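Escalated from tier 1: magnesium ion holo job.
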Amino acid sequence: MWSRSEEPPPGGPDAQRVRRVVYDEGRIRDRVEALGRDITAYYGPREGGNHPPPGLLVLGLLKGSFIFLADLVRKIELPLQVDFVVVSSYGAGIESSGRVDLLYDSATSVVGRNVLLVEDIVDSGTTLSRLVPLLESRKPASLEICALLHKRIVALEKEPRWVGFEAPEEFLVGYGLDHAEDFRHLPFIGSL
Ligand code: IMP
Ligand code: MG
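Tier 2 regenerated the structure:
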């Protein structure tokens, strides 16, 4: 909670329900800009090469990635397209069947595309370990992951090539991340 002597964080009443600001707006902006530069360099035309690479498809995992993705794509200076997937989330204790239930599947074909999957936060890694094999089975030219936050709880078979921040093992909200659907609109990332 915020004492009256402190400047309250931006975001209205919900912002004051946050225990502490972990990454403020400025820090997020700088990091997203750097990620955009790195991604642009990675997918951009190779020196000496004159063949344009197959188009980049930025695939956002909803809902958590919506703000991050919106900011990130504006920092990638390459031709790209955007689509989304929605994956069903299971509560703790539900046995992984190895398959993933897509509540919404990308309408765009990934065959032969350079796919960049954008995730808000990697926690147990369950979401990615289910989604990655499914996307790979669709034969993209390449598949890479950009995660805004990574808690490094488990090692994944395929780790994100780009990570915004090494996250503390706390429950984080804001900048797209929710708790029971609240807090997504906060312009900073805080800990509950
Ligand atoms: P995983 O499948 O356990 O890696 O969890 C990934 C998903 O869980 C994320 O896309 C988030 O929606 C949610 N999640 C995990 N940790 C947090 C957190 O600290 N705050 C908000 N959502 C989280
Ligand atoms: Mg969530």
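The first strand starts at residue 20 and ends at 23.
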